[in-house]
Amino acid sequence: MPLAREESSPLFAGTAAGTLRLMFYLALAMVLMVLDHRNGWLWRLRYATAIVVEPVYRLASLPADGFHALSVAFADRRLLTEQNQRLREDLLLANAKLNRMAAVAEQNQRLKELLDTQHSLELHVQMARVIGVDMGASRHRMMINLGARDGIKSGQPVIDAHGVVGQIVEVLPNSALVMLVTDPDHAVPVMIQRTGLRTIAYGSRNSQQLSLPNVPMAADVHAGDKLLTSGLGGRFPQGFPVGEIGSVVPSASGMFLEAHAAPSADLDRADEVLVLHDLPEPAGPPPPAAPVGPPASEAPAPASTAALPHATVPGTPTTSARAAAAQTIGTPST
Amino acid sequence: MSRQRLSFWWFVGTLAASLVLMLVPLPHVLDAFKPYWPALVLLYWALESGEQRVTLGLAFLFGLCADLLTGVLLGEQAVRLCVLVFIALRFRSRLRFFPMWQQTLAVLALLLNDRFLLLVVRAFAGESTPPALWWASPFVSAVLWPFLFLLLDDLRMRLRLQ
């Protein structure tokens, strides 16, 4: 094949026009990136293209699904029987525990009603399947198969049987993106179960761990302490397990202790998760004081004004800023 | 005519396949080693067909598609692929006739440059700096490059496509 001399690609010198074109495209991309980062209107574009994007996700996760199906199809009969037996036993045990829990819950309900609080123990949840497209090395996220059509909203907490998984950061028509608690951009206000000490658990940069970088020097924290959500920050309801502390070391600055915790939710293995519909309980900053001036009959809908802004006040912008929302949820209220 | 059309669809098909490969979920441990497939395939076509097929505009649009699919900052991969294709096209005449090991080294340099660019973009977007393992991907890509190049070239010859 004789090599034709092409004027368009000379051996050494490049053309000025090519460089100019590169500059043009780079500038265009810069503008796009800035627009997207500032989160103006580009999310609409994403929403519209979701129709095309979603089937591609499904296509991409086909190999993994295929392997799963194969492993089920070729599983040993004896293995399945054993598994079935074990699951039955587990179910029995779980049911027995549930019954006992139900009794305790009822008692608790009665006591709480007695105390005239409006908190309820019932969980309003929706079960979701993990579609499971992990999308980056430094970002811990997953997709679930519920979306805007199922009433999912950005900011809802996601849990599994063992603890908090994360929260919804982006909603598409038929699926939603969940930011896991171990994502470097994520923070959860937590409370140490044994002592009640409040602090914040951040996602950790290089492993599937949580890090608590600002525990006071004098605090009583050991390995093995359990972390619960504290309900501050107004996003996660109170009392869900978050993790268990593995190690406590002095931080680099020497001002604080730094603890590392393993998340209690099965982030790797979770196949089905629950999306919570409950609003967090009104803990944290006090609700805005009701207006004292005019009589109650003339005040415009006092009940709703007291409840509505409260859920969104403590540092949770309702704009769909993905990263921003995740970073601000754990902002300490001090 | 139909052969021309077939070779066009072959070109589009390899690009689309590279996008799907990019999205295939891997176990968490392997995630850092995932090669940057779209860049490899685009690089192959840039070296093979040059400006007739792979232009900066195509790289830009392809990058935008990849951005939409991965859900990262819109324009991030567009910038990376544009720069990659620009350098590849500029040195195409030389890169094509390099022996394979030199070509692989050149690809490694291109992909390292690409990672560096990504680092800059991420830094401007305010994301945290990635762990050291994050730099493994270009090396994996470079190791895969000769095989990918030979495979695509062989398929192209066999199907008698342009």
UniProtKB/TrEMBL annotation, chain A:
Keywords: Cell shape, Coiled coil, Membrane, Transmembrane, Transmembrane helix
Segments forming domain Rod shape-determining protein MreC beta-barrel core: 130-276
Matching InterPro entries: Cell/Rod_1, Cell/Rod_MreC_2, MreC, MreC_beta-barrel_core
Source organism (scientific name): Dyella choica
Composition bias type Low complexity, residue spans: 295-312
Name of the gene: mreC
Alphabetical list of Pfam families matching this protein: MreC
Renumbered residue ranges of the record's region Disordered: 279-334
One BP term from GO: regulation of cell shape
TM ranges: 12-35
A single cellular component GO annotation: plasma membrane
Protein's name in the database: Cell shape-determining protein MreC
UniProtKB/TrEMBL annotation, chain B:
Topological type in the membrane: Multi-pass membrane protein
Keywords in alphabetical order: Cell inner membrane, Cell membrane, Cell shape, Membrane, Transmembrane, Transmembrane helix
Family matches, as InterPro entries: Cell_shape_determining_MreD, MreD_proteobac
Primary localisation category: membrane
Coiled coil: none
One GO BP: regulation of cell shape
One GO cellular component, as annotated: plasma membrane
Residue spans crossing the bilayer: 56-74, 95-112, 132-152
Places the protein is found: Cell inner membrane; Cell membrane
Keyword Cell membrane: yes
Function: Involved in formation of the rod shape of the cell. May also contribute to regulation of formation of penicillin-binding proteins.
Family: Belongs to the MreD family.
Database matches in PANTHER family: ROD SHAPE-DETERMINING PROTEIN MRED
Protein name (Swiss-Prot/TrEMBL): Rod shape-determining protein MreD
Organism of derivation: Dyella choica
